[in-house]
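USER: My hope is that you can spare some time for a protein that puzzles me. I am handing you a single protein, as its sequence and its fold in C-alpha coordinate form. Walk me, if you will, through where the backbone shape changes along the chain. The protein I mean follows directly.
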Amino acid sequence: MSARGLKPIVLAIDGPASSGKSSVAKGVAKLLDFDYVDTGAMYRAVTWAVLEEGVDLTDAAKIGQCAQQVAPELTWSADPTAPRISIGAVDITHAIREPNVTAAVSAVSAVPATRAALVARQRNAVEAAQAAGRGVVMEGRDIGTVVLPSADVKVWLYADPTVRAARRVAEDQSAGRASAVGVEEMAADLARRDAADSSRADSPTRQADDAVGLDATHLDLTQVIDSVVALIDAQSTETNLTSKEQS
Protein backbone atom coordinates (compact mmCIF):
# COMPACT_ATOMS: atom_id res chain seq x y z
CA MET A 1 0.00 0.00 0.00
CA SER A 2 0.99 3.62 -0.40
CA ALA A 3 1.75 5.94 2.51
CA ARG A 4 -0.89 6.40 5.23
CA GLY A 5 -2.51 3.05 4.48
CA LEU A 6 -4.46 4.41 1.52
CA LYS A 7 -4.99 2.82 -1.86
CA PRO A 8 -2.15 3.54 -4.30
CA ILE A 9 -2.55 7.09 -5.56
CA VAL A 10 -1.38 8.22 -9.00
CA LEU A 11 -0.31 11.87 -9.11
CA ALA A 12 0.35 13.64 -12.41
CA ILE A 13 2.34 16.89 -12.35
CA ASP A 14 2.55 18.87 -15.57
CA GLY A 15 3.76 22.33 -16.42
CA PRO A 16 6.16 24.36 -18.53
CA ALA A 17 9.93 24.06 -18.40
CA SER A 18 11.60 25.03 -15.11
CA SER A 19 8.32 25.44 -13.24
CA GLY A 20 9.72 23.24 -10.47
CA LYS A 21 8.04 19.98 -11.45
CA SER A 22 11.01 17.73 -10.70
CA SER A 23 11.78 19.23 -7.29
CA VAL A 24 8.13 19.12 -6.24
CA ALA A 25 7.57 15.61 -7.57
CA LYS A 26 10.65 14.29 -5.79
CA GLY A 27 9.65 16.05 -2.58
CA VAL A 28 6.12 14.63 -2.62
CA ALA A 29 7.35 11.14 -3.51
CA LYS A 30 9.91 11.21 -0.70
CA LEU A 31 7.40 12.48 1.86
CA LEU A 32 4.73 9.92 0.96
CA ASP A 33 7.05 7.06 -0.01
CA PHE A 34 5.73 6.98 -3.57
CA ASP A 35 7.60 5.88 -6.68
CA TYR A 36 8.97 8.79 -8.71
CA VAL A 37 8.96 8.86 -12.52
CA ASP A 38 10.66 11.73 -14.35
CA THR A 39 9.41 11.54 -17.94
CA GLY A 40 11.48 14.56 -18.92
CA ALA A 41 14.62 12.57 -18.12
CA MET A 42 13.44 9.88 -20.54
CA TYR A 43 13.03 12.37 -23.37
CA ARG A 44 16.42 13.82 -22.54
CA ALA A 45 17.91 10.32 -22.62
CA VAL A 46 16.57 9.72 -26.12
CA THR A 47 17.83 13.16 -27.13
CA TRP A 48 21.28 12.32 -25.77
CA ALA A 49 21.26 9.12 -27.84
CA VAL A 50 20.13 11.00 -30.95
CA LEU A 51 23.00 13.46 -30.56
CA GLU A 52 25.50 10.69 -29.86
CA GLU A 53 24.43 8.96 -33.08
CA GLY A 54 24.76 12.19 -35.02
CA VAL A 55 21.15 12.08 -36.19
CA ASP A 56 19.92 15.19 -37.99
CA LEU A 57 17.35 16.92 -35.75
CA THR A 58 15.16 17.54 -38.79
CA ASP A 59 15.03 13.83 -39.68
CA ALA A 60 11.91 12.65 -37.83
CA ALA A 61 12.14 9.12 -39.21
CA LYS A 62 15.66 8.52 -37.89
CA ILE A 63 14.85 10.17 -34.56
CA GLY A 64 11.86 7.85 -34.21
CA GLN A 65 13.98 4.82 -35.03
CA CYS A 66 16.53 5.84 -32.41
CA ALA A 67 13.80 6.33 -29.82
CA GLN A 68 12.31 2.91 -30.49
CA GLN A 69 15.74 1.32 -30.08
CA VAL A 70 16.59 3.23 -26.91
CA ALA A 71 13.25 3.02 -25.06
CA PRO A 72 13.51 -0.70 -24.13
CA GLU A 73 17.06 -0.14 -22.83
CA LEU A 74 16.14 2.70 -20.48
CA THR A 75 16.43 2.01 -16.77
CA TRP A 76 15.90 4.49 -13.97
CA SER A 77 15.59 4.72 -10.23
CA ALA A 78 12.06 5.17 -8.84
CA ASP A 79 13.67 6.37 -5.60
CA PRO A 80 13.27 10.18 -5.44
CA THR A 81 16.44 10.45 -3.35
CA ALA A 82 18.52 8.78 -6.09
CA PRO A 83 17.08 9.81 -9.48
CA ARG A 84 19.45 8.17 -11.95
CA ILE A 85 18.87 7.08 -15.53
CA SER A 86 20.84 4.81 -17.85
CA ILE A 87 20.78 3.44 -21.36
CA GLY A 88 21.90 -0.13 -20.98
CA ALA A 89 25.01 -0.02 -18.79
CA VAL A 90 25.75 3.64 -19.51
CA ASP A 91 24.76 6.05 -16.74
CA ILE A 92 23.72 9.33 -18.38
CA THR A 93 22.18 11.02 -15.34
CA HIS A 94 24.41 14.07 -15.61
CA ALA A 95 24.98 14.03 -19.37
CA ILE A 96 21.29 14.59 -20.13
CA ARG A 97 21.37 17.94 -18.30
CA GLU A 98 24.05 19.43 -20.52
CA PRO A 99 23.13 22.48 -22.67
CA ASN A 100 23.33 20.62 -25.99
CA VAL A 101 20.68 18.15 -24.82
CA THR A 102 18.50 20.93 -23.42
CA ALA A 103 18.63 22.76 -26.74
CA ALA A 104 17.57 19.69 -28.74
CA VAL A 105 15.05 17.98 -26.48
CA SER A 106 11.96 19.82 -27.76
CA ALA A 107 12.70 18.79 -31.34
CA VAL A 108 13.22 15.15 -30.39
CA SER A 109 10.17 15.11 -28.11
CA ALA A 110 7.95 16.44 -30.91
CA VAL A 111 8.44 13.30 -33.01
CA PRO A 112 5.33 11.06 -32.61
CA ALA A 113 7.38 7.85 -32.66
CA THR A 114 9.47 9.16 -29.76
CA ARG A 115 6.39 9.86 -27.68
CA ALA A 116 4.76 6.53 -28.53
CA ALA A 117 7.82 4.57 -27.45
CA LEU A 118 8.23 6.40 -24.16
CA VAL A 119 4.55 6.68 -23.20
CA ALA A 120 4.36 2.88 -23.27
CA ARG A 121 7.29 2.66 -20.83
CA GLN A 122 5.76 5.31 -18.60
CA ARG A 123 2.40 3.57 -18.36
CA ASN A 124 4.12 0.26 -17.65
CA ALA A 125 6.00 1.89 -14.76
CA VAL A 126 2.71 3.00 -13.19
CA GLU A 127 1.10 -0.40 -13.65
CA ALA A 128 4.07 -2.09 -12.00
CA ALA A 129 4.00 0.30 -9.04
CA GLN A 130 0.28 -0.14 -8.49
CA ALA A 131 0.60 -3.91 -8.72
CA ALA A 132 3.14 -3.64 -5.90
CA GLY A 133 0.74 -1.49 -3.90
CA ARG A 134 2.76 1.70 -4.28
CA GLY A 135 1.67 5.24 -5.11
CA VAL A 136 3.28 7.02 -8.05
CA VAL A 137 4.28 10.60 -8.80
CA MET A 138 4.87 11.16 -12.51
CA GLU A 139 5.89 14.53 -13.88
CA GLY A 140 6.27 15.89 -17.37
CA ARG A 141 4.47 17.86 -20.07
CA ASP A 142 1.51 15.66 -21.06
CA ILE A 143 0.97 13.33 -18.11
CA GLY A 144 -2.53 14.42 -17.14
CA THR A 145 -3.71 14.86 -20.71
CA VAL A 146 -2.17 11.90 -22.55
CA VAL A 147 -0.04 9.51 -20.51
CA LEU A 148 -2.28 9.15 -17.44
CA PRO A 149 -5.64 10.79 -18.21
CA SER A 150 -7.22 8.85 -15.34
CA ALA A 151 -4.66 9.94 -12.71
CA ASP A 152 -6.22 10.39 -9.27
CA VAL A 153 -4.75 13.86 -8.78
CA LYS A 154 -3.54 16.23 -11.50
CA VAL A 155 -1.52 19.38 -10.91
CA TRP A 156 -0.56 22.06 -13.41
CA LEU A 157 2.48 23.74 -11.91
CA TYR A 158 3.51 27.11 -13.27
CA ALA A 159 5.38 30.28 -12.31
CA ASP A 160 6.28 33.69 -13.67
CA PRO A 161 8.68 33.27 -16.65
CA THR A 162 11.36 35.49 -15.11
CA VAL A 163 11.22 33.54 -11.85
CA ARG A 164 11.49 30.29 -13.76
CA ALA A 165 14.52 31.58 -15.65
CA ALA A 166 16.25 32.76 -12.47
CA ARG A 167 15.67 29.39 -10.83
CA ARG A 168 17.08 27.52 -13.82
CA VAL A 169 20.21 29.68 -13.95
CA ALA A 170 20.75 29.16 -10.21
CA GLU A 171 20.19 25.42 -10.61
CA ASP A 172 22.73 25.17 -13.44
CA GLN A 173 25.30 27.14 -11.47
CA SER A 174 24.72 25.02 -8.36
CA ALA A 175 25.16 21.84 -10.39
CA GLY A 176 28.40 23.12 -11.87
CA ARG A 177 27.11 23.18 -15.42
CA ALA A 178 29.39 25.72 -17.07
CA SER A 179 27.28 28.37 -18.73
CA ALA A 180 27.47 32.11 -19.16
CA VAL A 181 23.74 32.32 -19.81
CA GLY A 182 22.04 35.05 -17.81
CA VAL A 183 18.45 35.27 -16.65
CA GLU A 184 17.29 37.29 -19.68
CA GLU A 185 18.79 34.84 -22.16
CA MET A 186 17.45 31.89 -20.17
CA ALA A 187 13.96 33.44 -20.16
CA ALA A 188 14.11 33.70 -23.96
CA ASP A 189 15.18 30.06 -24.23
CA LEU A 190 12.38 28.92 -21.93
CA ALA A 191 9.88 30.92 -24.00
CA ARG A 192 11.16 29.14 -27.11
CA ARG A 193 10.74 25.75 -25.46
CA ASP A 194 7.29 26.63 -24.15
CA ALA A 195 6.18 27.64 -27.63
CA ALA A 196 7.60 24.48 -29.20
CA ASP A 197 6.08 22.18 -26.58
CA SER A 198 2.63 23.80 -26.64
CA SER A 199 2.35 23.99 -30.42
CA ARG A 200 3.57 20.54 -31.43
CA ALA A 201 1.01 18.42 -33.27
CA ASP A 202 1.41 15.34 -31.09
CA SER A 203 0.60 15.64 -27.35
CA PRO A 204 1.02 19.41 -26.99
CA THR A 205 1.73 20.71 -23.50
CA ARG A 206 -1.44 22.08 -21.93
CA GLN A 207 -3.31 22.04 -18.64
CA ALA A 208 -5.73 19.13 -18.32
CA ASP A 209 -9.33 20.23 -17.84
CA ASP A 210 -9.47 18.55 -14.44
CA ALA A 211 -6.00 19.61 -13.25
CA VAL A 212 -5.55 21.99 -10.33
CA GLY A 213 -3.48 25.02 -11.30
CA LEU A 214 -0.78 25.86 -8.78
CA ASP A 215 1.16 29.11 -9.11
CA ALA A 216 4.60 28.65 -7.56
CA THR A 217 5.84 32.16 -8.30
CA HIS A 218 5.74 33.34 -4.69
CA LEU A 219 5.93 29.96 -2.93
CA ASP A 220 9.02 28.14 -1.73
CA LEU A 221 9.52 24.45 -2.40
CA THR A 222 8.13 23.30 0.95
CA GLN A 223 4.96 25.33 0.46
CA VAL A 224 4.36 23.86 -2.99
CA ILE A 225 4.96 20.31 -1.75
CA ASP A 226 2.55 20.88 1.14
CA SER A 227 -0.08 22.19 -1.27
CA VAL A 228 0.20 19.11 -3.46
CA VAL A 229 0.09 16.74 -0.48
CA ALA A 230 -3.08 18.51 0.68
CA LEU A 231 -4.67 17.76 -2.68
CA ILE A 232 -3.70 14.10 -2.34
CA ASP A 233 -5.12 13.95 1.18
CA ALA A 234 -8.38 15.51 -0.01
CA GLN A 235 -8.67 13.04 -2.89
CA SER A 236 -7.86 10.09 -0.62
CA THR A 237 -10.46 11.17 1.94
CA GLU A 238 -13.11 11.57 -0.76
CA THR A 239 -12.28 8.17 -2.25
CA ASN A 240 -12.45 6.44 1.14
CA LEU A 241 -15.75 8.09 2.00
CA THR A 242 -17.21 7.04 -1.33
CA SER A 243 -16.02 3.47 -0.78
CA LYS A 244 -17.69 3.36 2.66
CA GLU A 245 -20.96 4.69 1.25
CA GLN A 246 -21.01 2.05 -1.43
CA SER A 247 -20.17 -0.82 0.93
Notes: The first helix runs from residue 21 to 32. Residues 3-241 form a domain with the Rossmann fold fold (CATH 3.40.50.300). The chain has one domain: 3-241. The mean pLDDT is 90.
